[in-house]
Amino acid sequence: MAEQEAMEQQGGGPKSDPPKPDEGIPPWMATFADMVTLLLCFFVLLLSFTNQDVTNFRKLMGSIQEALGVQYEDSSALSVPYADTSFKERASVRENRQIVELGVELKKAIRAKDLTHMAKVSSDKSGVMLRLSNQVVFDKGSVELTAEARQAMQMVIDAMNKTDFNLVIRGHTDGEAPESRQYGSNWALSAARAARCLRYILENSDIPATRMKAVGYGGSKPLLPSTSEENRRANRRVEFFFLPPGRSKW
């Protein structure tokens, strides 16, 4: 006791207990848990990427590989940096716009040349149709173009020069026996008239023959029943059908 009192008098005093640790996990463990959670989210995100369309993913990877100089023997499916459906939709929109623009231009040309009495224009998603009345384009039983028909041919030439459309020239008759001895059938007469229009375009322009063809339908595709002279006049016609390029069949 005397020794203890002496120590207290010297200022030592009794030793106190250490402070109690804080409750809960250690701080380093909280940081570690945050890191593990972030890694888990990262790998879940990577896994979600693997659920996309495999075909589109391969096409996208093909464009990257091509840019890096990686080549394959069969790279047709890997070298397309876009989806086929998206490209086809954009091409379809572009074609429709070109069809509408060509139809408008032909209608303006018809009014400017005062050919509304012999020419009609219609269009749909397949192309633009310019229809010329046959009694104005050709004399009866003849395959020689009239003066008015030559004006219409120039209108066709201008349209072909301004666009890259292909052209199908279609000859039609009324189904009655032809009066010309030179052409013994409606098929021969309609084909000869379509070919005469094509030859005129070739002789008076630089349009390549690969963009055009002539077809004779005879009386197989009438607009109206050939029951009257008025209907037969409507059925005797020449049609110029403009189709957008790239069509596999025209």
Strand elements, count: 5
Principal-axis shape equals rod-shaped
Biggest pleated sheet? 5 strands, mixed
Structural class: alpha+beta
Helix content: 40-55%
Radius of gyration: 41 Å
**Main sheet: strand order:** 1-2-5-3-4
How much β-strand is present in the residues? 5-15%
- First-last Cα distance: 122 Å
Order of helices and strands: HHHHEEHHEHEHE
Walkthrough of the structure:
With 250 residues, the chain is an alpha+beta fold. The protein has helices spanning 2-9, 27-49, 54-67, 84-112, 134-137, 147-162, 186-203, 229-235; strands at 119-124, 127-133, 166-172, 212-216, 237-243. A hairpin with a 2-residue loop joins β1 (119-124) and β2.
Any chance you could write out the topology, listing elements then pairs?
Elements: H1 2-9, H2 27-49, H3 54-67, H4 84-112, E1 119-124, E2 127-133, H5 134-137, H6 147-162, E3 166-172, H7 186-203, E4 212-216, H8 229-235, E5 237-243
Helix pairs in contact: 4-6
